[in-house]
């Protein structure tokens, strides 16, 4: 009797243990399935973000000046005058509008102020954007202070408002966002462009004399020189100079400088093409068109595709290229071409004064 009870107790205990083991196995199977689903979602998200970030890293292609003007006129609802007569300053203003709005019309929109992936993980395209922003700011200032200065000496109100909007912080995310301020700046540029095309508009000016062009070229030359110097600093000596500035660009900043220079050069291509149209009379008088063509050619060459996934920083005659020095060479030659052009303008001004 006792043996039977003991056997029954043993069997019931074995069954309980087996039931508990089966329950634990079921829980592990369900838990493992949940974890697999979690990892699948994370992996899918990362793939989508990486592909999106790769697509957002493509810069806008270079298009012809007639296409730029046609697009801007259509968006601004401006009808070209009879015989397709383009007022002076229209090419420059249309190019400036096109450059500025490319910041948010390109893939991914404006990325410098992004706080979420993949924008926050990207640094090449945001630095490219900053290079474009610098050129927009410089051109607005030159137009306000010199090119569009009225005979009375007063500044154009639309250009004043446009420049103030573009001087807004380039990394503001909210209240107000950078994009909203830059869009307002483009709106004021469109208002100025409308007045250029309106024959009845008063107090609208755009000076195309040699002195005004020289001021603008001096600003472009200065920017090119500074960018070339910063790019060349990728292989400079160690230490700091007398002003406390590092002689050599830190390794993690090399690609930032490269893409900022690339963005500035991209914008300068459009601006120099606009100079060819708006200042055609001055360039013909000085026979300086070849120097300007050389500058445009070098800047266009700086926009060649970069086939390496990273910006390489080789030294000497080694196996690895140095993309920063290649870019610096193009910008230096463009700067030298502008120096030649300015000398020719200076000679023309001296001859006119005699």
Automatic annotation (TrEMBL):
Keywords: Membrane, Transmembrane, Transmembrane helix. The chain crosses the membrane at residues 37-58. This is DUF2333 family protein. It comes from Cellvibrio japonicus (strain Ueda107).
